[in-house]
Design a protein that fits this description.
- Two copies of one chain form a homodimer.
- By secondary structure, chain A is an alpha+beta fold.
- Chain A has two domains: 12-154, 60s Ribosomal Protein L30, Chain: A, CATH 3.30.1330; 161-341, PurM-like C-terminal domain (Phosphoribosyl-aminoimidazole Synthetase, Chain A, domain 2).
- Chain A contains ten helices and 13 strands.
- Chain A has helices spanning 17-25, 73-89, 110-126, 178-193, 209-216, 222-230, 245-256, 271-278, 286-292, 308-314; strands spanning 35-37, 44-47, 51-61, 94-104, 130-138, 144-154, 169-172, 237-240, 259-263, 299-303, 318-324, 330-333, 339-341.
- A seven-stranded mixed β-sheet of chain A has the order 8-10-7-11-9-12-13, with helices on both faces. The first copy, chain A, has a four-stranded mixed β-sheet with strand order 3-6-4-5. A two-stranded antiparallel ribbon of chain A has the order 1-2.
- Chain A is flat, with a radius of gyration of 21 Å.
- The two termini of chain A are 36 Å apart.
- At the A-B interface, helix 1, strand 2, strand 3, helix 2 and strand 4 of A face helix 1, strand 2, strand 3, helix 2 and strand 4 of B.
- Strand 3 of chain A pairs antiparallel with strand 2 (44-47) of chain B.
Chain lengths: 347, 347
């Protein structure tokens, strides 16, 4: 909701592709020992002693993954990088390098491009990855950003989606639903800003910092995963939640050839989600936001039942249900014991 | 120049993201032993015994990298994949996996999407890579495609841009300039198709197959590089030509801290380039197309002078000049012995 036309900014059309790329590239120096070649050559090079290379790519497009009227460029860079790194972490691997391609239109300013890369830099630093490739090109349409994370894995620790078995505990690395609430708030306030609704007041995001942060600047449970590895606890399956809890559960069950039971009253939903919905005529439902909202960036993982004792005490993990036989399907158990089939569009 | 509205096609808006992704994914099965995890999980996993992971990403955007009115979708997929793999090959590494993200608008048909992936499949098969990730999302603007190539490298064979030294021979894996001629022809015929020029005739691409193929469906010198490796010939530097010969020479010289001398009459330019220009009032100049046209996808490489004898006999390489001291700069030597500084925008 900010005015982009500031007079002191530098239009990128005044600079060439290579000048821009060189300028942005000076921001990044590699610090991982594994990075043998960073920015400045045809490709990035890494040497992984643990022998497995784990790679994932995320593309973010204007109007689909973000709305520039309320999504600051810094957070677009940050979140896209975090998404790619989270996918690598979901294999129980460690992100080491980030490769970045972006297409920007001529209406952009150099300072806007800097903001985008400030966010990428922040994400890379937070999770210990080097930015090893930067390619900036022009775009005739909207802003596009593609980030690839390349990480190091270990064959003995690898967690695939298809590894869950009957009786495994289903766990979450943190609460879900708040990211969708944040998006809902931003869309509501945009309509007010545009004069479509609420003509008697101005857009106001105050007091909603938590849900906004979960949507714009989500974190990854890198420390939790590291602690589990240190204690030789290897999830039987794992996936990054980017399309809601239901989609994650159904993905793991489908890949593992199992069913799953999730208990409604065990799903961690932040207090702020209920507060936001309550002040908004109970819209959206916090449970629906948790199940189908998406963008939570939590890890959904399964662990053998034998880990039950240590899990509930020593790790910041929520146990929300358990894997069951495929014939029982994937269901949500309500507090009064009813079974509802879990659903997600297209699954 | 084709009419996209065919009645029997399936609009992609009738299918969900996951149905589409599943459908496209069935096209790809992994065949490299190194690929431990392909499509279907959070990330791709590879095990490289040679210990180095070499990665590169290319993003292609509608209106910038391709014009849908004359660039068939199949070739967009093919060329983007080839670009990413070529960057990996330019480090003297071998591409093993391709990760694909694409954003398509609702006006697309399932058959269009299939075409895009037919091209990616063809490129992957031709150069021996597995497609290990497919992500399809909607786009509100144009078509976007990002492909990451992940390959296996060997520390002893790695060729960086910065490794050239004084007296090294400068070589090309094949002829340059034709890709730009192909683009020029397509743009000219598009103007005729649109009625902007040449109202007395219809668009005609016949007889120009060679220059069109160089632009739409360029090849990579994978076999040449493999033969050099087999014979223990390791280039001192190498880069993929995607922005013209001048840009490549200047990149290697800059990274190596050297100068370079290129002989005009040694630059391999295909007969078809001269034929096209001649029939077109000598526009564009074949030499300018070679130097600044871009998109040739040849390898530019340097080799020690000691390799001179074997090079000219056994490999399909053209020696076009040599590296010199930085103080001599980067120059083009004309047939009559004049020196012209090599230039490329932004370098």
């Amino acid at each position: 909701m900010s005015d982009k036309k500031e007079p002191l900014k530098t239009p990128i059309r005044d600079l060439g592709k290579y000048v821009l790329t060189d300028r942005i590239s000076t921001r990044f120096t590699s610090s991982n020992e594994a990075t043998l070649q960073g920015i400045g050559d045809d490709a990035s090079v890494a040497c992984f002693h643990e022998a497995l290379t784990v790679s994932a790519q995320k593309m973010s497009l204007e109007g689909v993954d973000f709305d520039l009227s309320y999504f600051p460029l810094k957070f677009i860079g940050y979140k896209t990088a975090v998404h790619a790194m989270g996918q690598v972490m979901a294999m129980n691997a460690v992100p080491v390098q980030l490769l970045v391609c972006t297409g920007v239109s001529q209406r952009f300013f150099l300072e806007d491009l800097d903001e985008l890369f400030v966010g990428i830099e922040a994400a890379a630093r937070l999770y210990g990855a080097d930015v090893t490739a930067v390619d900036i090109q022009s775009s005739y349409t909207g802003l596009s950003l593609a980030v690839t994370a390349v990480g190091e894995g270990n064959a003995g620790l690898m967690t695939r989606r298809g590894g869950a078995s009957d009786t495994d505990l289903i766990c979450l690395s943190g609460s879900v639903g708040a990211a969708y609430m944040g998006l809902h708030l931003l869309q509501r306030e945009k309509r007010i800003f545009n004069g479509e609704t609420g003509k008697d007041r101005l857009p106001d995001l105050k007091g909603h910092e938590y849900i906004l942060e979960q949507y714009l600047k989500p974190g990854l449970p890198g420390v939790l995963l590291e602690n589990l590895r240190k204690d030789d606890i290897i999830p039987t399956s794992m996936c990054l939640l980017t399309n809601g809890l239901s989609h994650g559960i159904l993905s793991i069950a489908k890949a593992s050839g199992t069913g799953a039971k999730i208990y409604v009253n065990k799903i961690p939903i932040a207090r702020e989600c209920f507060e936001y919905a309550e002040a908004n005529n109970n819209e959206p439902s916090p449970l629906v936001a948790a199940l189908n909202g998406g963008d939570d960036f939590q890890m959904l993982l399964t662990l053998p039942l034998a880990n039950y004792e240590s899990l509930s005490k020593e790790y910041s993990l929520d146990i929300i249900g358990h894997i069951c036989d495929a014939s029982d399907g994937c269901t949500l158990i309500t507090p009064d014991g009813k079974s509802i089939p879990l659903e997600s569009p297209g699954m």
